[in-house]
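Exercise 3.2. Students should predict the tertiary structure of the chain below and write it as structure tokens, then compare their answer with the key that follows.

Predict this chain's 3D structure.
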Amino acid sequence: MEYAGKNMELLPPKVKEWVVAMANWCKPDSVRVIIGTEEEKNEIYTMLEKDGVIKRLPKYENCWLARTNPQDVARVEAKTVIASEQEHDTVTITKLGYHVPGALGPWMSTQELDKALAERFPGCMRGRVMYVVPFSMGPVGSVFSKIGIEVTDSAYVVINMLIMARVNTEVLKTIHGDEFVRCLHSVGQPLPSDRPIISNWPCNPEKTIIAHIPAQKKIASFGSGYGGNSLLGKKCLALRIGSTLGRREGWLAEHMLIMGITNPKGVKRYVCAAFPSQCGKTNMAMMTSTLPGYKIEVVGDDIAWLRLDDKGQLRAVNPESGFFGVAPGTSKKTNPIAMQTIFKNTIFTNVAETSDGGVWWEDIGEEIGKGVTVTDWQGNPWTPEKGTPAAQANSRFTTPAGQCPIIDPAWESPEGVPISAIVFGGRRPEGVPLVYEAYNWAHGVFIGASVKSEATAAAEFKGKVVMHDPMAMRPFLSYNFGYYLAHWLEMEDFAKGHPMPRVFHVNWFRKSPEGKFLWPGFGENIRVLDWMLRRIDGEDIAIPSPIGLLPKHDSINLDGLGKIDLDALFDIKRDFWMKEIDELETFFKQEVGADLPPAVQKEMDDVDRRIKEMKQ
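Answer key:
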């Protein structure tokens, strides 16, 4: 069947050929190509409001509330797969032949995936519109950028993609042949439905699958409308497909913020930082400095694409055009810049609603007004006495990056911004110092590979178990982790003698034996960044330790901060670190095995030796 949907004439031949094939497979009632005009946006918002999928929030300018099915609230890592012809391309040698997911990448053969998709997609869009969303991750026309075409039967996905990616007809003009990523998405609940549609949110949790075929530049997502599973330009393309393309083409796709920091002398540097989800990337990217004279500007809060220029300088772009941030915990205290950004042109998902037309969530830092009632994220009346959260723990805001008051002037530069430092970190309540610096690039790669953190609500894990999350990329790796580390190492060779960025590790979350945070965090983190920038400038303010370079005594500016227990913050206990290295060695043996690059093994052996040489 030939579909002659709205704006189909705008599609390049190879794109149209694929779209028609997907339409014939999924059987939508109609097809519509999205072109990103204001008139089109308003029409879709009006339709979604009429259908009860979103609700206008009159307290703010052009803000909306969506509630999802309670079974569709987060990324589903257990149902996220990478497909390849050769298992070893995706899975490290220790997992070959087991056909069970390791901690670093669930694999499925392309034949198995074809069968799984054939059981799901035929006829899945009956009764619905198939939207065709042409999008650019990265500034349109930049050497960094990649083009995707997402077909979806969810108008909610469309309005979020219009914020999170660059969606317009210029994108279509940049496509040559079949040089685009094919992104297929369906909520998996055709009409008429044989099951209730809860909260006007169609989904199919029992059959959810989020599949990637990197070699073919294809993504197929079925059964979930949640952002991390359905906005296919985000984690799916920008990280999973992106990291594979990066290896092939000589660049990196990473789970990192990008921020610009100008010191009191007017010197500006850019820093990337990789933390697992809900470990403070957005708060750090939008930091309000407590030290006078510092200026912070944000390029991106979640994903960075890094590429070496002709001189060997590592540069980065934010491939996204919006922020998809976690609402609970965001407040004027923790992130005042975010609070200035999100109350216009924003889609809120699974937060609580107030009777005066606003939103509310835990730790928002604002009391509920007198006479104002609250409806929780599932649509039920709520009071604090109820004993349940008003907002879902992973509730989100989707907001345009360009309206952030501290957006960096170069945030859409097609050349990217020059990176001076890369920072790794996670939630580590004990044992790990506030900050330390790598001795060299290979040591920095080892530090990134050794990242661990408490699990958060961004995925389906329960409780506060400390998990390995190397490079903060564990949920997003799309090829063999040993090959991934080797690619990081070879970036130094590609730089042809140009210095690589300094590498640091931070831990804002260390606690006292009484369970209280030892470091105030948030805007005070500028004091740690100040120390890093002075290290980059060559200041002699670091001393060697078994795990890396630590700040010299009194080298971190604590003026006006009150009593801080630096001894506790920087204490390195031999027993803790011996256990840490033992666990890391076991992790590498079980998950990487012989695919572990010798340079990473050497760095681990050196740390192990230095720790064992410590006095008891």
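Discussion points: The two ends are 76 Å apart (CA to CA). The mean pLDDT is 94.
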